[in-house]
Amino acid sequence: MDYSSLKRFLLLATGTFLLLLFAHFSFHLPSNPPFSRSSPFLFHSPSVNTAKPASRNHETDIASHPLDPLTIQEINIARSILLSYSPFSSSPSSLTIHSLSLDEPDKSVVRSWKPGNSLPARKAVAVTRYKDKPYVLSIDLSTKEVVQLPVPDSGYPTMTIEDMMSAPWAPFSDKAFNATITARGVRMSDVACLPISLGWYGQTEEGRRLIKIQCYSAEGTANFYMRPIEGLTVLLDMDTKEVVEITDKGNGIPIPSSTNTDYRYAVTKNNRAAWLKAPNPISLEQPSGPSFTVSEGHQVKWAGWDFHIKADARAGIIISGLGIIDPETGTRREVMYKGFVSELFVPYMDPTNAWYFKTYMDAGEYGFGLQAMPLVPLNDCPRNAYYLDGVFVTADGKPYVRENMICLFEKYSGDIAWRHSECPITDMEIKEARPKVTLVARMSASVANYDYIVDWEFQTDGLIRMKVALSGILMVKGTSYTHTKDVPSGEDMYGTLLSENVIGVIHDHFITFRLDMDVDGPANSFARVKLTHQATASGESPRTSFLKATRHVAATEKEAQVKLALYKPEEFHVYNTEKTTRVGNPTGYKVVSAGTAASMLDPNDPPQLRGAFTNNQIWITPYNKSEEWAGGLFVYQSKGEDTLSVWADRNRPIENKDIVLWYTLGFHHVPCQEDFPIMPTVSSSFDLKPVNFFEKNPVLWLPPNQEKDHPVCTETATA
Asked: Is the pLDDT of residue 18 over 80?
C-alpha cells in the first residue's frame, strides 16, 4: 500500500470533509487556497471528552465469509489486475476507478455455504472510466480473469471523492468568475464553493460530465451555508475543468449576515441564557458487559439474532444473512437475505434558475457510504458501543480506511417489551413487566449541509425497525427581504423566511430501502390484507358495522405496487406458503408503514422520471442480482431509463418466488425558524414485524429486571 499517497489523500479529505463534504446539494469546499491561513475553514473542533475507540490495523485482514468486503490486500490485487488489463495498461493514468467492491457470489452459493467451508471464489467488481468510456468489470482475484459486464445506456458512475474535491477549485482560474465574486463584495479568501449534481434536463447536457458550482461567503462564521452568494451558478466540465457558463441572477441580493449562524459549542456555550440548565448526563452501564458479540469482524450475534454487517461505499450499511433462533424449537430461521439503503432522492421545490436542478440522488451521485463520517463516541453512540470501519478506494484504486463508520450498541430507554397487572376486582396479585432492550446498528452520513442518521434496530420479539433521522443545516436561499411584511402579496418565495435575507426552501427527502426477504427460505409471496367497512345484516346484531380483513395474494409486480392511503388501510405481508404454524397460518413478516410522504411532482417532470422509484411506497420484484440500485447503476446525469419503476413495469410473476421488497420513507420539509441555524433532529421509521412467524409471544422467556442486577454507580474520589 502506498502510504504517502494515502496520507496525502486523508489529510486532504479529512480536513475538507468535516466542513464541506458533498451535498444534498452535495457540495464541497475547496481545500487549498484561495482560503487564507486565517480562513474559518481551517478551524479545529473544540476538544470533547470522549473515549476514542482504538484504531484497527486492516493490513492483515483476511476474508472469512463469502460476503465479507474486499480486504486491503484484495483491493491491491484487483488494482494491479486492472492496471495490467488491456486497454488500461497502455495508459494507466487515463483510468479512473469510481468504485471497487466485492462481486458477491450467487445467492444460492452463499446460502449453502457453512462456516468452516472454503470460501467461494473471491471476485471484485470495478466501475471505471477509461478515456471517457465507462466499463463495468468482474475480476477473479485468484485466476486474474476479467469479464466485462453490461454498461447502462445513459448516465455516469458515482462521482469520486477527487471529482468532488477538485471541481470547486476550477472556477478560481477563470477571470470572469473572479470578477463576479469581487463585484458581489466578497473577498476571494472568504469564498467557499460546492459541487452540485445537475440532474438531466435535455440533450444540451449530454456527451460530457457536467457539474454546477455555487458559492458562499465564510466571513465571520463556520456555517457558510447561511451566507449564499445567491444567484451565482457556474456550469463546469468535470473532466476538463472548463468553465462552460457563468450565470449571475443575484445582483441586488445581499449576502446574509453571519450573526447567530455559528452552531459550535465553543461559540454557543457563551451565549446560553442564565435560566437554561442542561439535563444531567445519562449513561447506560452494563456491569456484565455487552450482550452482543462480533466475530471475524462482521458476524453479529445478539439475543437470538445473527447477521452479517459491512460498510459499503454506496449504500452505507449492508445487513445480510439475517436470521433468528425460534425460542420454541431452538432452530435458526431465515428472515432476510440482504437489506440496505438503495437510493436517496432529494428534490427542492424552487423552479427558478439557480435552484431548479437541485434534485439530488445522494447514493448514486455522491456515494452514501463515502459521505459517512467517523462517529463521535458518547454523542453519536453511547459508551457501550462497538465500532466498525469501512475500507474504500480512491480514484486511482488505492485503499483507505474510514474509521468508526458504523457503531453497534444495546439501547434501553425505559420502554416496555410487555406487561400486565391484574386489577383489584380479580383478587389476583399479578404485576408482570419486562424491559425492552434492543440492538442498534448505526451510521451517519454528512451530505454537505445535511446529516442523515440511519439505524437498523433489532428487537427481541423479532421486529426489525429501519429508522432514518435528519439533522444538519438547511440549504437556504438569499433574499432582499428582512421581514414577511416586505414580501409582495402573491409572490411565491418557495419557502419560509427564517432570518433576515434568508429563505429555507421547501424540499422532500425520500429514502428507498431494498429488502431481499427470505422468510423461512427464499420462496415467498406477497399479500395485501385490505381492511374494509362491512355492514351487518338487518337484525343480525345491535351493531350496524364492523371491520373486515380480506387477503389478496399478488400474482405479478403491478399487483404489488402500493400507494399508501390513510382511508384505505391495508396490511402488507411477505410470507412463506410452504411453512405454517401448528394451526395452519403461513409464517410471515409484515410491513408496518410510517414516513409516508409521497412525491407530488408531475410524473413526467425530469427529476421525477429519474426518481420514479418514489412513485409508490412499496414495490415487490423478483430477485435479480443486477437490480440493486433503485435509481439505476449509473445515476449521474441519467435519464431514468434504468430504475426500479422500469424493471417493475415488466410485470413479472412474484407469487411463491424469491422476491425483493422495496420501501420508501418520505419526508416533506417546509422549513421553520426552529431549523435556523442548525436543525433539531427529526426522524421516521418503518418496521418489519413477525406475523404468525412464531407460535406465540416470542419474548415470554425474558426475565424481569432485578435490583441486584443493576448496581448504582457512584463517583469515586481520586487522590
From this structure: no
Q: What is the pLDDT of residues 159-213, one digit of tens each?
A: 999 999 999 999 999 999 999 999 999 999 999 999 999 999 988 888 999 999 9
Query: Of 450, 452, 575, 589, which is the active-site residue?
Result: 450
350 counts as catalytic? no
Check residues 131 and 283 and name the one with the higher pLDDT.
131
- The dihedral built from the CA positions of residue 315, 25, 190 and 500, taken in this order, carries a sign that is negative
Q: Is the peptide bond before 53 cis (omega within 30 degrees of 0)?
A: no
Phi then psi for residue 14, to 5 deg, are -65, -50
- Dihedral Cα 273, 379, 41, 18, nearest 10 deg: -150
Residue 351's CB: how many other CB atoms inside 10 A? 10
Planar angle of CA 551, 556, 558, nearest 5 degrees: 90
Smallest CA-to-CA distance from 653 within 620, 625, 680 is with 620
Other CB atoms within a 10 A radius of the CB of residue 450 amount to 27
61 belongs to the catalytic site: no
Q: Which three cell numbers stand for residue 654?
A: 412474484
Specify the pLDDT at position 718: 53
Catalytic pick among 350, 362, 380, 455: 362
pLDDT, tens only, 237-294: 999 999 999 999 998 999 999 999 999 999 988 877 778 888 998 888 888 889 999 9
Considering only CA atoms, which of 368, 284, 336 is closest in space to residue 26?
368
pLDDT at residue 41 in the model:
27
| Amino acid (1-letter code) at residue 276 | L
Omega before residue 150 within 30° of 0, cis: no
* Residue 20, Ramachandran bin (φ over 0: left; ψ between -120 and 50: alpha; else beta): alpha
